[in-house]
Amino acid sequence: MTAQEIAAFLADEFPQIDGDFEVVSVSAKEIVMRLPVKDKHLRPGGTVSGPSMFALADVAFYVAVLANVGPKALAVTTSCNIDFMRKPAQTDMIARAHVLKLGRTLVVGDVMLYSEGMDKPVARASLTYSVPK
Amino acid sequence: MTAQEIAAFLADEFPQIDGDFEVVSVSAKEIVMRLPVKDKHLRPGGTVSGPSMFALADVAFYVAVLANVGPKALAVTTSCNIDFMRKPAQTDMIARAHVLKLGRTLVVGDVMLYSEGMDKPVARASLTYSVPK
Amino acid sequence: MTAQEIAAFLADEFPQIDGDFEVVSVSAKEIVMRLPVKDKHLRPGGTVSGPSMFALADVAFYVAVLANVGPKALAVTTSCNIDFMRKPAQTDMIARAHVLKLGRTLVVGDVMLYSEGMDKPVARASLTYSVPK
Amino acid sequence: MTAQEIAAFLADEFPQIDGDFEVVSVSAKEIVMRLPVKDKHLRPGGTVSGPSMFALADVAFYVAVLANVGPKALAVTTSCNIDFMRKPAQTDMIARAHVLKLGRTLVVGDVMLYSEGMDKPVARASLTYSVPK
Fold first, then answer.
1. With contact defined as beta carbons under 8 Å apart, do A114 and A97 qualify?
2. Cα dist from A86 to A102, A110, A115, B133, D109, whole Å
C-alpha cells in the first residue's frame, strides 16, 4: 500500500484517530509518521505524555504492517516494549518504523521516536502484531 | 498517601487527565484504578484501544509510586512492557498495580488490566519509574 | 503432565540441560522449579549470572506450557522481558511460573525468581511461547 | 576502551566466561561480538539455545557500556527484552550492539543477533544497564 492508500484506509477504519497522525512516507525499508503535538498531548513542564508516544509508536508500526500485508483492519498489537530515554521537546514527534520479521501470523519490528529537530531518539519501542490469516 | 490525597494530587498536577481515571483503592499491597470507558477509548468492533490500556497501566503504576514515595510529580516512566492477551469487553476497565522493587531511584512493578466483570486479565504490563531524589 | 512425567520428558528431549534444573511441583495454578546454584552460575562477588536466571525463567515457563498442552518438544520462546531487581544470594534459586493466557498458538505468562530463603523476588520475567499445532 | 583492552578486562574480571565470547570490533557506533557455537549451546534440531543468545546479547551490551564508560566491573543488567524471530543456523552467532542513551546511571541500547552468513536477524534485544557512579 502507498502512503495515500494507507491514509485513506486509516481515515475509513479508524475515524477516532483521524487527524491525530500523519503518514509522512512509506517505503520497503521504513515508515515515517508524524504526531502533530497539541495541548492534549502535553504534560506539566511541556513534555509529551507517555501514552501519546505509545500511541504514535503503535500506529506507526500498524502502518508498517499494512504496508507489508495489505489492508487488514483486524491486525492487533500483541505486545509492546517501550523505553523512554530523553525528555521530548514541545515540537511535533516523528516515528520511524521498521519490520524485522514478517511471519505468517506474527509481525515483529521496532519504532524509533524523535522530537522534530533533535538528533537523538526520545524513545524506542519494539512491537509484535498478530495478523489474521 | 491515601486514595483521596492521591486523587487531589492528580487533579492538581495533571489537569489534562482529570476525570479520565478513578482511584478505587490504595493499600500497601495493591493499588486499584478504574478507566470509565467512553467513546473516545473505543476502536471498531467495540474494543478498547491499546493506547487507552497503556494510559491506564501507566497512571495506575504512577499512583502506586506516589503511594510509596509521596507526592513527586516528576516521577517518570522509563520503560514499559505490555502484553495484550484478550479482547476487552465494552465495560469499564480495572487496573491492579503492585510494586515489586522500591529502589532509591528506580521503582519496578506490574499492573494487571481487567474488563470489569471478566475473571481473566485483558493485558499485563511491567513498568519502571525513575524517581527524582 | 505431572512433575515426574515432565522431568522424564526433559531428560529425554533436552539431555544438554539434564541435571541443571529440578521440577519441584506442578499444579494448575503454578509451576515451581529449582536451580541448584553451582560455580558455573556465579559471577564475581558471588552473584548468580543473568544468563543463569534467564535460563531458569525460560525452562520454568516451558514446563508450565508442557503442563498445559502436553509433551510438545517444539514449543519455542518468542519473547522474554526480564527485570533484574535485587542481587541474588549464593543459595539455590526458585522459579514460580504462571500461565496467564493459553491461546491456540501463543502462551503468555510470567515467572518470579527468588533466592531460596529471601522473601522478595530477585527478578521477574514475562514470556511468550509459540506452540506448534 | 579498545577491543584488546576490553578482551583483557573480560578475561580478568569474568574468568567463568573466558573463551566463550570474542570481541570482534569496537567503535563509537557499534560493538561486534561473536559466539563460537559449540555443542553446549545447541538444542535438539541443531538450534542455538535461547539462554545462549541471551548471554551473547548481554555480554555484547556490557562491552558497549565498557567502551563508553571505562572498566566498571560492577555495571549490571537491570532489564532485557528479547524477541526471538528466526531459527538460528548451526554456525557461529554475531551480535551488533548500539548504545542509544548514555545517562548518568542508566545506559540503554539494543543488540541485533545474527547467524553468521544469514542476512536477516535471528533475535533482537533491548537492554538497560545500571552503572555505579
1. no
2. 30, 17, 10, 18, 13
What part of A 99-118 touches D (C-beta under 8 Å)? Answer: 100-101, 103, 108, 110
pTM of the predicted structure, to 2 decimals: 0.95
Query: Is B78 at the interface with chain D, CB within 8 A?
Result: yes
All partners of chain B with 3 or more CB pairs under 8 angstroms: A, C, D
Closest CA to B122 of B27, B24, B52, B23: B52
* Chain D residues touching residue C42 (CB < 8 angstroms): 16
Residues in chain D within 8 Å Cβ distance of C83: 78-79
Domains of chain B: 3-130 (3.10.129.10)
Report the residue from A83, A100, A120 with minimal CB separation from D126: A83
CA pair distance C51, C98, nearest whole angstrom: 21
D contact chains, 3+ CB pairs < 8 A = A, B, C
Could you give the 3-state DSSP secondary structure of residue C124? strand
Residue B38, pLDDT above cutoff 90: yes
Q: Residue count of chain C, please give it.
A: 133
**How far is residue D34 from each of residues A88, C71, D43, measured CA to CA in Å?**
36, 34, 19
For chain C, give the percent of residues with pLDDT over 90: 78
DSSP state of B17: G
The answer to whether the CB of D112 falls within 8 A of the CB of D61 is no
How does pLDDT run across B46-65, given as a tens digit for each residue? 889 999 999 999 999 999 99
What pairs with residue B76 in β-bridges? B130
Q: Which residues contact A114 (CB under 8 A, 6 or more apart)?
A: A93, A94, A95, A96, A120, A121, A122
C76 close to A (CB below 8 A): no
Task: List CB contacts (< 8 A) between B62 and chain A.
Answer: none
Question: Which residues of chain D have a CB within 8 Å of the CB of B106?
Answer: 78, 130
D79 and chain C in contact, CB less than 8 A: yes
Q: How many CB atoms lie within 10 A of CB B55?
A: 22
Select the residue of A50, A81, A84 nearest B81 (Cβ to Cβ): A81
Compute the 3-state secondary structure of chain C and give helix, strand, coil in percent, each to the nearest 5.
30, 40, 35
Q: How many other CB atoms sit within 10 Å of the CB of residue A105?
A: 14
DSSP C108: E
Of C78, C81, C106, the CB nearest to A81: C81
Among A31-40, C5-14, C25-34, D12-21, where is mean pLDDT lowest?
A: D12-21
